[in-house]
Amino acid sequence: MIELKQFQKKYKNNVLYSPTNLVFPKHSISFIMGSNGCGKTTLLKCIAGLETYKGSILFNNQPLDEVRSQCFVIWDDTPCFSNLTGFQNIKILSELKKNSEIINIAQKYLDYSVLKQKVKSYSYGQKKKLMLAVADLLKPNYLIMDEISNGLDVDMMDELAAHLNKMKTHSTILLTGHQFSFYEKVAEHIFIKRSDNLIYISPDMRSSRTLEDIYHDQTIEN
User: Fold this and answer.
1) Which backbone phi and psi does 29 adopt, to 5 degrees?
2) Stretch 68-73: mean pLDDT, rounded?
């Protein structure tokens, strides 16, 4: 699990998160939704240790420094080594796993001919798929994805949904995004960012409503 304890974040006088206590449960998929610019990505950066904050963030009761090697984050802008090939990127980022293993996994996401090309020629969606291949190889205990469905076609999103539902058996997965039709397939625990709070949507609150319904209800109330 990933636990926030008295978590606070602000920029000067702009309070993004008042003291917050909550848990993203272990071996399940948690989904954070909210309007653009509300602080979802900032929260992920805090969890990944890229932003300062007050309070604490624990991973199964351990600080990030103790579990950093067990975490993997896929950012919306998917930074890669542009002058290296897809295969070279995967080899570096997947901790130098065997070539045969890399090829077997990587070709589930990208054609062999594409993997031999330099990443600077890749489309936005191809870079996303490259990072998904790395995550597949690493099998991290904590997998965090920011707007992961952006740039993926419908078939790839269906495959990703199925893959995430398998990965949760060994990973605690945290997602943010806006394509509700995709996240509807995988989200088990729903959180919504409102004002300076992150609110858990209980099963009773969710009931038979769609994520889009919940989003509009909560943001209108806000």
Assistant:
1) -115, 115
2) 92
HEC profile of the chain: CEEEEEEEEEECCEEEEEEEEEEECCCCEEEEECCCCCCHHHHHHHHCCCCCCEEEEEECCECHHHHHHHEEEECCCCCCCCCCEHHHHHHHHCCCCCHHHHHHHHCCCCCHHHHCCEHHHCCHHHHHHHHHHHHHHHCCCEEEEECCCCCCCHHHHHHHHHHHHHHCCCCEEEEECCCHHHHCCCCCEEEEEECCEEEEECHHHHCCCCHHHHHHHHHHHC
Averaged pLDDT of the chain: 88
- Which residue's structure tokens are 């609150």? 205
With beta carbons less than 8 A apart as the criterion, state whether 112 and 102 touch: no
Q: Which pLDDT score, from 0 to 100, does residue 167 have?
A: 86
d(CA 133, CA 130): 5
CA distance readout (Å), 15 to 20, 54, 124, 193: 12, 12, 32, 13
User: How many CB atoms sit inside 10 A of residue 215's CB?
Assistant: 19
Whether the full predicted model's pTM is greater than 0.85, yes or no, is yes
What is the percent of the chain where pLDDT is above 70? 97
Q: Which two tokens stand for residue 193?
A: 């960012």
Residue-wise pLDDT tens digits, 7-23: 999 988 889 999 999 99
pLDDT at 70: 92
